[in-house]
Design goal:
242 residues; mainly alpha; 9 helices; 3 strands; 51% helix
């Protein structure tokens, strides 16, 4: 199972990057960033259940929160999409809550959220203002397949949806500020937390897990990672993504 999990991590986040050593301030920021994602994944009902969270650099990522999607789900509801977007914004929102300034680490998160919101508006019929019309953009064409007024409406609706996801995320993480700190400080100690660690810190997730956990882990959440000795450079085991 260890080799299986390591293979998944390599596919999702790339190879462990032992040459990328964060300074203490950066490492603390990444820990609170990833803890924000983790808390959202734990307490949003429609977010994919959290598998692990890590601050070990892999590929271009400085850390990551790994979820386990339900392979038996073929349709996504608006609630699921909103929870996914809110969870994706959890890293930046956590930085806003815990630090005097924010960092550039959420750029990829913004890209994902913008793409999801745009799809909801232009392809999935989830905007009352735009209605049930499918707008296909072709980058090869010089002109968009809709009017400037429609482009303005699309932009407004995308902004509205992203803002709603941000508000949803901010409300949860403000309420769970203490829990973010608990997860982040444990991350700084261990660098990687698995499901059992999160249950110990946060209590059992308040929603039923999907069947994937039993399928892959036989009901076990994973072995807790050992503490990292003080002043030890980052290890090279499984996990990261910002």
């Amino acid at each position: 199972m260890t080799h299986f999990e390591s293979a998944i991590e390599r596919v999702i986040a790339g190879l462990a990057n032992s040459t990328r050593v964060l300074n203490p301030v950066e490492k603390r920021t990444v820990a609170y960033h990833e803890a924000g994602h983790a808390i959202c994944g734990w307490f949003f009902e429609h977010a994919d259940p959290l598998l692990k969270v890590s601050i070990i650099p892999r590929g271009k990522a400085l850390g990551y929160a790994q979820s386990l999607p339900n392979s038996e789900t073929y349709l996504l509801t608006m609630h699921q999409l909103m929870d996914r977007m809110a969870m994706t914004l959890g890293g930046r929102v956590s930085e806003e809550i815990h630090f005097d300034t924010v960092t550039s680490g959420a750029s990829d998160d913004f890209n994902k959220v913008t793409r999801m919101a745009t799809a909801m508006v232009t392809k999935l019929g989830m905007s009352e203002k735009l209605g049930f019309i499918y707008y296909e953009e072709d980058e090869q064409k010089l002109h968009k397949p809709f009017s400037e007024e429609t482009a303005k409406n699309i932009d407004q609706e995308v902004r509205r949806i992203v803002q709603e996801a941000y508000k949803q995320c901010k409300e949860l993480l403000t309420e769970k500020k203490n829990e973010i700190g608990l997860v982040a400080e444990e991350l700084l100690s261990k660098e990687m937390l698995v499901r059992d660690d999160l249950v110990r810190i946060l209590g059992k997730r308040p929603f039923a897990d999907n069947k994937e956990f039993d399928k892959y882990f036989g009901g076990e959440g994973g072995k807790s990672a050992p503490d990292v000795p003080p002043d030890t450079p980052p290890a090279v085991p499984p996990t990261p993504a910002m």
